[in-house]
Amino acid sequence: MEGRFSNENRATPGEECLGAARNGARLPRSMGIGWSTHRNDGWRGQFDRTSRWYERARRAAAAGTPELEDFVFAFFQNCYHLREWMLQTGEASHRELADFFAQHAELRLCRDICNGTKHLNLDSASVDANFSIGREYAPSEPGHARLFVIANAKYDLLDLATRCMELWRQFAERPRGEHDA
Fold this sequence. Notes:
The chain is built from six helices and three strands, in the order H-H-H-H-H-E-E-E-H. The chain has helices at 18-22, 42-63, 68-88, 94-103, 105-118, 157-172; strands at 132-137, 145-150, 154-156. Helix 2 packs antiparallel against helix 3, helix 2 packs antiparallel against helix 6 and helix 3 crosses helix 5.
């Protein structure tokens, strides 16, 4: 007897979710046109998006707005995924990126923050699967807070974001072929 989620049935719009797919439902074929504006500028477009999230986080920190956490988390998610964009567009090799991350603890922590703010639990971490993000308040500056992360050490999240942006800029400006494997 065919059930609601059998492979013979096409998923209804309400079933078009991972839960339905995990239960064997067929999801409709892609209806895309083969390209999307988010891909237009390749890895540079992702770098620019990451830069915009960084600037939003800096402005939110300066203004003391409650969106600071949102912008910082979005920054680290976009910052880490720049690695994939560079790999998939051929800007960098897997080995080159692995070496780059191995050399910089800040980028490994970026990975953990990216995955830890996207997923409830981390199965594997680069630095610390049980890192903690907190907020510190300065009594002399009402409404202003500083976000920090405690992993293998304590880091100011905006300082860490600044360092990650510096590292990616240096990597993007490297002479091509110098580090390629």
